[in-house]
Design brief:
Layout (H helix, E strand, L loop, with lengths): L2 H14 L7 H11 L4 E5 L2 E4 H17 L7 E5 L4 H12 L3 E4 L6 H11 L3 E5 L1 E2 L2 E2 H8 L8 E5 L10 E2 H7 L5 H4 L9 E6 L9 E5 H14 L7 E4 L6 H14 L2 E4 L5 H11 L3 E4 L1 H10 L11 E4 L6 H10 L4 E8 L3 E5 L6 H6 L3 E2 L4 E5 L12 E6 L6 E2 L3 H6 L7 E9 L5 E6 L4 E3 L2 E3 L1 H8 L5 E11 L3 E10 L8 H10 L10 E4 L13 H12 L1
Amino acid sequence: MTSNSDLALAEFFRASGLDPDLMLVDYVFAWASRHPRRVALVDDAGQVSYEELTADILRLADALRGLGLVSGEYISIALPNCREWVVAHLAGMLIGLITNPILLIHRERGIARALSSVESRILITVDSYRGFDYVDAVLRSRANAPSLEHVVVVGGRVSEHEGVTPWKELMAVGQVISPEDLRPLKSTADSAAVVFYTSGTTGSPKGVVHTHAALIGASVPWVDRLGMSDGDAVHMTSPFGHLMGYQFGVSLPLILGGTGVFQAEWDPERFIALVDEWRVVHTSGATPFLFDFLRSLKDPARVSSLKRFLCAGAPIPRALVEDAAHRLPMLDVLGAWGQTECGLISMCLPSDSEDKRRTTDGSALPGVKIRVQGDDGAPLPPGSRGNLQVQSPFLFRQYLGDLAGTVDAFTPDGWFITGDLGTVDSDGFVRISGRAKDLIIRGGENIPVVEIEDELLQHTQIRDVAIVGVPHERLQEIAAACVVLEDPLRALRLEDVQDYLRSRGVAKNYWPEVLVIRESLPRTAVGKVQKFMLRRALEAAVR
């Protein structure tokens, strides 16, 4: 976005000794030359070697060129985590296309909005997803996405629809040509690579444009800081259409020359089986994934290869980290903090002290700076809670179609305003305490939302919880606890919750004053609680 970010990125590449002109597809070609038969990708359909992946990329790039698509246009992809997603993205990269991922949770309205926002002429999608006829929804959305010319469908039910092209048919048209033939069309490292959409935890998502160089640079620190090796198997179940899913499911294993092990849908039993079969070393996911994994695990020997589980997107309850440490002493559960606009900002390392790993979200990545400011804009001393701001080589280029919003996202002196609240201690370790928009101010006093949620998650009857603010006539706002019970048949009263917090030494002003029992909490595809939906429901109930 800013010249400062561009300069910082150039300095990052100089310091790391990496070629700043290499893009992800170049790494794939290099590994295919060195280890052609090594498994590059594993998905629900089987496995693909680096040699096979390279051939598919070249074949599809030739076919896309034959459709008349030109550099600077967008290739929209609405697929689950699978090989076709990777092939489409990298083939588009070879001819200068920008990837526009569309999450499969969207229906006609969301599909049309995502397509029309970039005037995409092509969409690669799936025939059905979780029993939903996705192609039918795409075809119905065409009236509001007039630019769409080509609908390419992965799956076996294509014949039921007119006006679509089967994936296999398009692939058959293309030839495995030389990468040199496509060099004049290929993207440059400083050009737009992918538009990621913010997760929508506070409202409507925004399109966040990242460059190739920023995405490569943001993935590289992982390799050294986590001690990863050439050929490691890396698992991912978060959607590739989110930055976390892409960066650590698509980019990281291919840069590493490893094996990307994909899950289209989260299933803890299937995850355990994949770790066992492919000797997975690393995975990343939100806290609910870790919770489900530990609950489903019966035989720790099956996951003996798993060394790291990085949790980002939501604070990790201390009790969950302690449970993992007790049951799987070889596994490091590492906290991290990141955002769609700037990738990973901080992370814990296996070498950090046990206390830091259990109580913080890590320290800043190389080249990243973090500062804490008060509401008046004044800098705060270490340990003080305030507004977190960031300078990073890996910042986004812009919000899609929103120049004013892009400018407003930065301070006058060039720091990105994260919208997160937290502290940075004297050692440089970050502790996130919530979103500024999620802040609850009861009678003029701030309620430490994350800390209260963490306490309640240790209650034996509570499986999941989110604290949100609800309007109050005198105090302006009070805390409501939205709770999912371990056993729905066992009653839990507000008085029980308050008594528990009293026993934990929590100040009375911080106690929830409303209790709502729910079957589940609304979450994004990467596991973040959508608190704005909870607030909306509670406010409607109060009226």
